[in-house]
Amino acid sequence: MITVLFADDHEMVRIGVSAYLTAQADIEVIAEASDGSEAVELALQHRPDIILMDLVMKEMDGIEATRLIVEQWPEAKIIIVTSFLDDEKVYPALEAGAVSYMLKTSKAEEIAKAIRATYKGQSILEPEVTGKIMNKMRTPQSNHLYEQLTAREMEILLLMTEGKTNQEISDQLFIALKTVKVHVSNILGKLEVHDRTQAVIYAFKHDLVN
User: Fold this and answer.
1) CATH of 145-205, one of 2.40.30.20, 2.120.10.30, 1.10.10.10, 3.90.1150.10
2) Which of 35, 56, 178, 205 has the highest Cβ tally under 10 A?
3) Strands 2-7 and 100-103, how do they pair?
4) How far is 33 from 54, CA to CA, in rounded Å?
5) pTM
């Protein structure tokens, strides 16, 4: 049996896809998560063969969840299943460690095929995603570290430039304090700085603040 963890904040999506997958002779959905934080916890607890990961979820998005899972469990095989094909979602998701990228418009049987293929070590990408990757390879890349930040991380960095504490950021964005701390840690790592002050200086130096 190929064990699967399905993370998606839409309950009806989880119910529908999980029901189809569980009906397969070789696939078993052993856990479901409704947000990124829960996905990280369940992934490290159950160590499923495959993780189906939505991108846009409350508390913590799928990109951050993917990064945290892979950092602690490099062998994890994560399939992104999302409605988004924009660059700020595709590249960070793959760079975070996802090995396959599917759209929610895919039929359930196509997702099942992607699970089997990914389990065997293949990488399944939507044709549009493959095209984007090829175009990115042809385009000269800049060396700005801030381009690695997700939209949420950039939002938190700008709040940091306003002098807001983690608790104040948590209250303003309506996300858990521990999630803010994870984002801040990732921001410091991506910008290659050691503390919040250096991160704020970096933001002003690179004209990230209006």
Assistant:
1) 1.10.10.10
2) 35
3) unpaired
4) 10
5) 0.67
